[in-house]
Amino acid sequence: MKTQVCIIGGGPAGLLLGHLLHAEGVECVVLEQRTPDYVLSRIRAGVLENITVSLMERLGLDARLKAEGMPHDGFNLADGERLIRIDMADLVGDHVWVYGQTEITKDLMDAAPERGLQVIYEAEGVALHDVAGDAPYVTYRLPGDEDDRRVDCRFIAGCDGFHGPSRKAIPASAGTPYELVYPFGWLGILADVPPCNHELIYANHERGFALASMRSATRSRYYIDVPLTDRVEEWSDDRLWDELAIRLGPEAAANITRGPAIEKSIAPLRSFVFAPMRYGSLILCGDAAHIVPPTGAKGLNLAASDVHYASEALIRFFKAADNDAVATYSDKALARVWKSERFSWSLTKLMHRFPEGGAFERAMQVAELDYIANSRAAQTTIAENYVGLPV
Ligand code: FAD
Ligand code: DHB
Fold this sequence. Notes:
It contains 13 helices and 20 strands. By secondary structure, the chain is an alpha+beta fold. The protein folds into two domains: 226 residues, FAD/NAD(P)-binding domain; 123 residues, D-Amino Acid Oxidase, subunit A, domain 2 (D-Amino Acid Oxidase, Chain A, domain 2), CATH 3.30.9.10. The chain has an eight-stranded mixed beta sheet. Strands 8-2-1-12-19-18 form a six-stranded mixed beta sheet, with helices on one face. The longest helix has 23 residues. 3,4-dihydroxybenzoic acid binds next to loops.
């Protein structure tokens, strides 16, 4: 097969990029190693910034998001006793949308056949070749194949997440990985119960971090931080609900409705950036190039902003023979990536108890939360970052 852009990975980054290119007449194909059901079974992010919503609007795929998603004007930081409301509408005149990543992925997936975007699922053994030059190709197999299939293209877009093959196709001498691994993970629970609060609550309690989030008026998503050595089997639903009630503080606890977990899993936390985000004819987007700790809900939104820059660059290359657009992609994307990394890292440090952090570190967190509670300037900084910096 011959195409202009071969996209590896059919998660939110790959599908968004595919739709944006296809809508502008740039030929592309998406190769995804899993089945559609498997991709949709991964429960992840829940908060959308404007950049993500505006790309869905541009594609005309925002109808369900606008009907079922919930615009949130504010969210709360809690220090174990009080709630500090960050009023995004008042502070920066903006809001975020609460709508699951799974729903975004489903909307993009459902629209692919009717728009003629080719997505090949269950592509096994995907491998990238000749990425340094201007005639790269990708090989893969479908279940039952004896021989490799081949996609010749002008560019490869690596949208295959942190563990995919794209970033690994870049020689070690051509890029630098920057990494920070945190000494805890997030244990998440999804349950069909009404949320305990109409807005999100990020809490830093003596016993650790907790987050109260939601997917709808009848579906809640909660997280606590746990040591990396904990296993999900050690956390019965009851034990987790008890811990959430303590960490979220008395006001939220009084409104928690308990219910059986639909999903419960532990995700490790890490900050990671690979720079540059382009090598030859290979462009990296989303988790393939960077990871943020989930505090601040930036992961999916950062994938969307990469896709915004990447689609612009590729469309200019094919429609206006503009080589510079691709050459400057990495610098443009990274400028925003580093700022989101900084925000996610600083909110993670503020809201979690680090095992090695002593009484002084704890006192600094308490002082900072107290400062934020009483400073409009501090709240504005948080609101500006939470709604998403401009692209
Ligand atoms: P992905 O969603 O990882 O998609 C990559 C796709 O590539 C996948 O479909 C994968 O199957 C496919 N792929 C991988 N390898 C290959 C291959 N060899 N061949 C073909 N296809 C391949 N963010 C938040 O903001 N809040 C959260 O609560 C949150 N929770 C998370 C929990 C977990 C366990 C993880 C891993 C991430 C979480 N994130 C969260 C981050 C957020 O989900 C990601 O930033 C977002 O999914 C990035 O989208 P992506 O398309 O770049 O990568
Ligand atoms: C959710 C996840 C996050 O990482 C976050 O910061 C806010 C909400 C969620 O899954 O709902």
